[in-house]
Write a structure and sequence with these properties.
Strand content: 5-15%
Number of helices: 8
Protein name: Response regulator transcription factor
Largest sheet: 3 strands, parallel
Order of helices and strands: EHEHEHHHHHH
Shape: elongated
Keywords: DNA-binding, Transcription, Transcription regulation
Structural class: mainly alpha
CATH architecture of the largest domain: 3-Layer(aba) Sandwich
Pfam family, one: GerE
Helix content: 55-70%
Radius of gyration: 21 Å
Organism: Streptomyces olivaceus
CATH superfamily of the largest domain: Response regulator
InterPro entries: Sig_transdc_resp-reg_C-effctor (IPR016032), Tscrpt_reg_LuxR_C (IPR000792)
Distance between the termini: 36 Å
């Protein structure tokens, strides 16, 4: 964290505004591209549509101005600096509903998962994590060995992973297996 007027690097940006207007959104996007730090937004009012725009702009915490005591601002900034997020309960519910809708209506119909992996890729990675080799995975999934190798190659190339163990580790950290 850095105090206003400081010349050192900042860990978190705090942005106070009445509403999330086009100008405010533009400023937040510039902050995101130039500083690449989390943003705490303190608006007088915010609605569902504004929340999604704010999240796209690297806002990790929303603290309504009416609740913005010095102690709450301090706690929120510390949470943002440590990689956490803070949202009012109602906005968190909206965000979770939107996330669920996106998975159900946008990603799943195209065979995608929020991790960026297809169901087939997830199945191959799960079997790899159980210690199965290419031939065993092919038998278990009713695929050719070549098809299994293509799946593994596709995952490692697309996600910039070094090898099979790295791919399994990625899937474990992402929570998909």
């Amino acid at each position: 964290m850095v105090a206003v007027g400081s010349t050192g690097p900042a860990d978190v940006a705090v942005f106070v505004t009445e509403r999330l207007t086009v100008d405010v959104t533009s400023t937040l996007r510039r902050l995101k591209s130039s500083l690449r730090i989390p943003v705490v937004l303190i608006p007088s009012q915010i609605d569902r549509a504004d929340l999604f725009t704010a999240v796209e702009c690297n806002v990790v915490a929303v603290l309504p101005r009416v609740a913005a005591t010095s102690e709450r601002i301090r706690e929120t900034v510390l949470t943002a600096a440590s990689g956490g997020g803070v949202l009012p309960t109602k906005l968190l519910g909206e965000l979770l509903r939107q996330f669920e809708w996106m998975q159900r209506e946008v990603l799943s119909p195209h065979g995608l998962h929020t991790s960026g992996l297809t169901p087939r890729e997830i199945d191959v990675l799960r079997l790899m994590s159980e210690g199965l080799d290419t031939a065993e995975i092919a038998v278990r999934m009713c695929l050719s060995e070549r098809a299994v190798k293509r799946v593994v190659f596709g995952v490692t190339q697309r996600l910039n992973l070094r090898n099979r163990p790295h791919a399994v580790a990625y899937a474990l950290r992402s929570g998909v297996i």
